[in-house]
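To close the section, here is one more complete example, presented without commentary so you can practise reading it yourself. The ligand is adenosine-5'-triphosphate.
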Amino acid sequence: MLTNIYETSLALLTDLYQLTMSQGYWKSGRSEREAVFHLFFRSNPFRGGYTIAAGLEYIFDYLKQFRFTAEDIKYLSQLEGNDGRPLFATEFLTYLSELKLSCDLDAVPEGTVVFPHEPLVRVKGPILQCQLLETALLNLINFQTLIATKSARICAATGGDPVLEFGLRRAQGIDGGLAASRAAYIGGCAATSNVLAGKLFEIPVKGTHAHSWVMSFDDELSAFEEYAHAMPNNCVFLVDTYDTLEGVRNAIRVGLRLREAGHEMVGIRLDSGDLAQLSIEARQLLDAAGLTSVAIVASNDLDEAVITSLKAQGATIAVWGVGTKLVTAYDQPALGGVYKLGAIKNEKGEWQPKLKLSEQAIKTSTPGMLQVRRFQNEAGAVADVMFNELNANLDTVVMVDPLDPINRQPLDGGLNAVDLLVPVVRNGDIVYRHESLTTIRERVEQQLALFHVGVRRHENPQPYPVGLEQELYDLKTEWIHRARSIQTPL
Ligand SMILES: Nc1ncnc2c1ncn2[C@@H]1O[C@H](COP(=O)(O)OP(=O)(O)OP(=O)(O)O)[C@@H](O)[C@H]1O
Ligand SMILES: O=P(O)(O)OC[C@H]1O[C@H](OP(=O)(O)OP(=O)(O)O)[C@H](O)[C@@H]1O
Ligand SMILES: O=C(O)c1cccnc1
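Output:
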């Protein structure tokens, strides 16, 4: 079971406008009106071809802590509007203090490969409640999905060599550091240096030593000897404090003495200079000394591009320590996920599709209560089709490319079909079984294997087909026309 990260009430972890709109829904008698929202992103991060969904378990933790306590209500009661009078009505605050979530959430399991415009989470319930959840859900899913994806890319670049996540010191605060360690492990990292993340999430913890250890002695050899004395079963010597190849020679001296004492040196770490050249030279020195099992660990601002380049240069690095660029998603610091209303019930209790128009077709949201069906054959995933659960006849599925509607592809009934969104919360209660991070990591591997290498490559990846089921496409087109006419002046 995930240890609760959050032990405080979290209903106020939201943008003020969610609460002002909520008072609006309440005052206009529409707070209980049923609505459906979708959380999705519009483009794969890092100019990549895929994205790894993550963060769902944190949503469960957040929902468990969703309540307006007496202190929260007191705080809200003190907020003032422009005229200096209370922003919120006392009766509305009483309503909030008695609020119990009754939403249904459907979500894509963590570790699933997902694509732009596909809902990662779908929230159905009283519109006021759906609205109150928006900001926190985006906060939780956007960040962890981004970092899990970055991690998967870095791990793909190492081609299976272990990646150690070293990012805590450069992460965005305490919570960012913990969530990043979790997401990095989901994406494929072998271990973290973050000990609290290790304890909370059962992630293996690993580490070497810092330059300060070497600098605290008069010479490097004494530093390595003392470290070996203190930690004979965890010796990875950082060799670049003064002269890297001299450092390797000192490590070898200590490694051979350790062996005589019945221990094996685990590795050396390179943290500066030309990592390809130094790793090749260090490997030669280690092998010549008979220390063939000693691993070369490298760190220093690594990311998937540098790792790919180092591999191409024949670097003999066996373990990769990656911090800053992983946990901060350095080259793209936000996923840009959004949360849009798909449908709302009218006074008669009938679902009304809703969409948000945009100048750019790609930004116009898709109406309905959406589900994603992934079609697969023996070779892997063929296409994902979004459909509207409110009005779907899926006996024969014709997929329409929303950006090129002439491109209509019938999907053969012989294909396997899996619906990506699964029930996770019903009437406010979590109904999804807890998944270990091991299960989630395995899912990432299995899922990535379903996709063509062209979709997975980092340079100019092939777009994977994601389309709208024909009836949904027609519905969207109809509602685009209707929405435009709403705006057309008489
Ligand atoms: N052979 C290589 N090919 C491509 N990139 C490399 C190679 N070796 C190191 N790098 C990367 O180059 C970047 C800068 O390395 P550089 O050697 O300039 O800095 P540094 O070694 O940290 O400098 P300093 O000695 O001041 O610490 C780092 O991201 C590092 O991982
Ligand atoms: O480069 P990153 O991918 O962010 O990996 C983490 C970095 O953090 C440490 O450096 P730092 O200078 O903070 O401490 P040190 O004195 O132990 O090298 C470590 O040596 C790595 O270089
Ligand atoms: O254990 C390490 O080598 C380590 C830990 C944090 C940051 N950099 C390196």
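Once you have examined the tokens, check your reading against these statements. The domain at 149-328 is CATH 3.20.20.70 (TIM Barrel). The CA atoms of residues 156 and 304 lie 8 Å apart.
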